Amino acid sequence: MNSQTLPRMRIFGLDFTSAPGRRKPLVAVGCSFDGSVLRVEDAEEMANFAGFEKFLRQPGPWVSGLDFPFGQPRSLVAALGWPASWEEYVGEVSQISKEEFERRIKGDMARRPAGSKYRYRLADRRSGSISATMLFRVPVGKMFYQGAPRLLTSGVSVVPCRANGDSRVAVEAYPALVVRRLLGRRSYKSDERKKQNDIQRAAREELIAALSSDAMREAYGFVVEMDGRWRERFVREPSADALDSVLCAVQAAWSYARKDEAWGVPKECDPDEGWILDPALLGG
Q1: Does residue 182 belong to any structural domain of this protein?
Q2: Angle, nearest 10°, between helix axes 175-183 and 241-256?
């Protein structure tokens, strides 16, 4: 779509966690997008999932990039005897406890041969991300448990799992893909104080500068603009939660610009597994 004909849209990015709190809240960064510029405008912190549920209920139109797996591998869904469709198996997950969900995932892992304990979605393999079933270290499986059922009950249009025509649209984001494109695999953040250093701070400065560069426009078709106070905040915060939310917004804006092209989801995607929206996943 030509950027001159793209209706201006409210874009959000939200870096997710399975256990939000006052020390590590969910941070939703709000932006405006006109097809050529994604402008950072505001941010909202949510210390609990009630805040996230309220965020999802706010009136549209808007598009939000959320950093957690919306679905699970089809092979896992079949192995656990869950219904095949996204709405049905997420609905079933919503009826069991967190402990029971984790028990079932671990049970499936225990039955699998050594070296292939984890199952992967096609989007996980293409993006180089960890399995959507992971419960340790970066516990994206726990993020799925907390996030996907809330998407289901909110009624938002979930790309590509449930395209229901709602003006509130959620797309799955993975900020690491934006970082790799603009910064390579250099470390730019840490939640552990002892691992936070000036090298990471310098990397954040470089990443922020790259968001407004020709390389950014070439990769995503637009640039990110922000005023000095946002730049200062994103550089200052060593955990980079808010900065990662901006990167989620980048992927949401890229997807919105392709809303007439299946939102950037390739034909080979299994919609019941979900998809990470980024140009890097289009090439196989």
Answers
A1: no
A2: 90
Cβ density class 118-154: b for 16+ within 10 Å, e for less? bbbbbbbebbebbbbbbbeeebbbbbbbbbbbbbbeb
Whole-model pTM: value is 0.96
Tokens matching residue 280 = 């890097």
* Boundaries of domain holding 31: 1-174+249-277
Q: Is residue 221 part of a domain?
A: no
pLDDT tens digits for range 117-130: 999 999 999 999 99
Output the CA angle 262-267-268, nearest 5 degrees. 140
The four Cα atoms 208, 211, 212, 213 give a dihedral, to 10 degrees, of 110
> In which element (H, E) is residue 62 found?
strand 62-66
In a domain, 31, yes or no: yes
75 assigned to some structural domain: yes
Instruction: Give the residue from 18, 7, 46 showing the smallest Cα distance to 30.
Output: 46
Contact criterion met (CB below 8 Å) for 104 and 80 = yes
Give the integer Cα–Cα distance in Å for 23 and 105: 29
Q: Tens of pLDDT along the chain (284 residues)?
A: 444 568 899 999 999 999 999 999 999 999 999 999 999 999 999 999 999 999 999 999 999 999 999 999 999 999 999 999 999 999 999 999 999 999 999 999 999 999 899 999 999 999 999 999 999 999 999 999 999 999 999 999 999 999 999 999 999 999 999 999 999 999 999 888 888 999 999 999 999 999 999 999 999 999 999 999 999 999 999 999 999 999 999 999 999 999 999 999 999 999 999 999 999 999 75
Instruction: Count how many domains the chain has.
Output: 1
